[in-house]
Amino acid sequence: MPISDSLRFYLTNFNREHHLPIRYNQLERFQMGAPLYDSKGEDTLWETLIYEPFIMKQLNEGLKRVYAILKAGGDESVMEHLYVDRIDYCVFGNSKPFRIRIVNSRNDNQDYFYVKKADASRVYGLELEHLLSPNRMFFLTEGETLVEEHVVGLPGDMFIEDWLESKRLKAIRIAKELIKFNERCFVRLLGDMRPYNFVVDITPDFEETQIRIRSMDFDQQSYDARKNFYLPQFFKENNPLVEFCTSHIDTKTARQYQREEHALISRRMDVIALRLRALLDSMAQDRLAPIEHVHQLRQELSAHYKSDLFLKCESMGELVRQSLDLMKSKAKR
Length: 333
Prior knowledge:
It contains eleven helices and ten strands. It has helices spanning 5-13, 24-27, 53-72, 120-132, 156-162, 171-187, 239-248, 251-271, 273-285, 291-305, 316-332; strands spanning 32-37, 43-50, 82-90, 98-104, 110-117, 139-142, 145-149, 154-155, 198-203, 210-215. The strands form two sheets. It has a seven-stranded antiparallel β-sheet with strand order 1-2-3-4-5-7-6. Strands 8-9-10 form a three-stranded antiparallel β-sheet.
């Protein structure tokens, strides 16, 4: 769904809307693409693009300016030693994203950002993540273009394969974060959190290593009709994580961690109450999913929470608001 006038008004008021030197459709003028393989020789599902030299010259300057806006508030002095090393394209994702690799010529340090089609669900997902999670999300929009900062971390599938059983990480900390992540997704109705749609941020601490799970794909914010779609624990790809949790944490402890996460979200809601209300007012007006999806989901949420309040909701935005309000009232009690 395109960005509505009400959402555009919100983005403008809270400095998410910005004039961008490069638009999404300009990046579509490539000649060809070559498959991009990882260090193990496996297809990453991304293609590295090739452009005509004069087009690439224009893109190079424009993308460096986009990076300066995203990272330095538009201070173009940071551009002096930067160059666009690579432009990748993913046909697998719903957003058909372009991934830009920026390199500093002085020290070969590299960074990434993404240029995507600006879809209302995706923008709502990014903003809800920014407001309600412990993670800050930096993105900008203009017209049909969305620019996102790169989310740093190990892809979920790589974490499961290489780190889940690592002795360097404390099992209880992993299980706790998995439970809290599951709750964050469910209360704000962020769906499809399979391993390739989230990353794991591993941070060494003075005693033990900390981890945090971060969503990196927001295409399925409040669209699907099924309640379980918003609970990462029900995806078969996440079964190793579920089994890991159940083997290290009992039900009573899991509920304690759920309550902790609800309390944290509730406090964030208090701090940004006016901004969150403006976002949810816009979200309630937008039709993010077919009405039959809304009606099925409200029935399932009503049964799950044993609350008829959900049955009055006529949009996905209203369901998100009701979910957050119910969680907040329980957290306060």
